[in-house]
Amino acid sequence: MDWLISSPGERIGTMKTELSFANLPSAETGLLVVLAVDTQTAKGPDAKPVPALLTADATVKAVAALVLASGEFKAGANETVLIHAPAGLAAARLLIVGLGKQGKATVNSVRSAAGTAVRFTKPRGIRELAFALPEAEFLPPGPCSRALLEGAILGDFDADTYRSDRKDLSVQQFVLIAPASADKTAVQAGFAEGVIVAESQNFTRALVNEPGNKLTPTILASRAAEMADQVGLSWDVYSTGKLEELKMGAFLAVAQGSAEPPALIVLRYQPEGVTDGPVLGLVGKGITFDTGGISIKPSDKMELMKYDMAGGAAMLGAMRAIALLKPKVRVIGIVCYAENMPDGKAYKPGDVVTAMPLSPDKPGKTIDVINTDAEGRLVLADGLTYARQLGATHLIDAATLTGACVVALGIHNGGAFSNDDETIARFQGALATSGEKFWRLPLGEEYVEQIKSDIADIKNTGGRHGGAITAAEFLHTFTEDTPWIHLDIAGLAWIEDSRPYIAKGPSGAGVRSILEWVRSY
Ligand code: BES
Ligand code: MN
Ligand code: ZN
User: Fold this and answer.
1) Is residue 14's pLDDT more than 80?
2) Exactly one of 16, 101, 268, 297 is catalytic; which is it?
3) How big is the CA angle at 395 (ends 230 and 142), to the nearest 5 degrees?
4) 290 lines ligand 1 (CB under 6 A)
5) Secondary structure string (H, E, C) spanning 209-220
6) What span, in angstroms and rounded, lies between the C-alpha atoms of 12 and 214?
7) Beta-strand pair 414-418/438-440
8) CB–CB of 274/295 below 8 Å?
9) What gap in Å lies between CA 68 and CA 414, rounded to an integer?
10) Cα atoms in the 13 Å half-sphere on the side-chain side of 404
11) Sign of the CA dihedral 500, 502, 506, 512?
């Protein structure tokens, strides 16, 4: 076969990815994958599915003809059917994966289908896979190649890192086969992007998966710095001394109950020659474990609170992808790392803490701590202020901030909040490419009433009603008029049940959308 390019950039994981423009029957592989859609347009009980392959190759079509005619395979989204020893193909097996109804199938369905193919392959011990780029008018080859690589690399991730009987079932070789007639430049660009984006998202997932004892604030900050060195971002890591100097009283209060010192990382992406225009500030919540502190959480599911650094990890994944894809806009990434613990030295309900001032001569805002479990907004308050002080003109933050957001939106949409319609519109535009789902929730003066304090400027909880919104309004106090987006990913960052295209465990939610938002500038 004539391999045109191999994977660019720093590699994470073991899957080797290649792009080929050879014909499908010649693909020597354990498994050749082709996609299918249901072309039935009629509705009603008699309207049986009419599955059709998205390839023009006559040999592949002949192999699939019987099973497609049998009615056993309906080409539903992520539905699979396997054919052994396909006649006329060099591949050992042919796998058909459904995209669902023709009118509804999109590039996002292709991402899932690619994930499904890899997750089908892994437990069967098949180590190499070739994937036919679908030929269909509604699937543009560039974006489709990108989504395909994303789905495959994301699908290859499993969370079983610490099992001593762990068998590495990773797919060793993934070949994308594009038709010779396809736009080569678009396919190559999409392919290369997909690898970078998915490996960055898997970088995030690997961090989120780590338990709190293995990934303390200090260790996590050094892992972030190591990544920054690999991809050419400049960075600074600070701890208690610098936080005191900056008067980050809110962040320090959260950290003071832990034997582990806090860490603050600042990553800088400076594209060559760009000296004006916006400076985007990406700020993440990096609570390496959230016990709730003195307002301690119930023990049921508390172990999952190792994922309370997922917002910060999403920012790291986005920064990694930014460094490799090189958009022409300056970006600062800030993550605040701490462990929220109960202790003799821990902060307490009723404590009043002073947040970081925007400029050293001004006083910081005072915060009445009602609940030590509302710690994320405290570390973010200082992180957002610091981003503004460092010159960020536009802000985005990501955090596993509230259980209330999960109650409001469930686990399929993240919460998005903004003080600026233009800024959030760019983010909503980015969702079309990322395929992620975020739903805008309101802010408003009425909600600010709920977080007014008798003793201080603001309190850190706003009661039972609209908990995701009052949390966002708390952050808004610190972003003020700087255009800003807040993403609450509490319901997205951890997948409780495996899906056909992605493993259960850390999802890496937010990475792709934040990246596309940055690229919109
Ligand atoms: N990290 C939690 C939010 C969370 C809950 C994330 C469930 C993922 C899944 C956050 O620090 C928290 O404890 N929030 C409190 C806020 C409350 C005390 C106002 C919550 O949501 O209960
Ligand atoms: Mn908490
Ligand atoms: Zn938390």
Assistant:
1) no
2) 297
3) 60
4) yes
5) HCCCCCCCHHHH
6) 20
7) parallel
8) no
9) 38
10) 16
11) negative
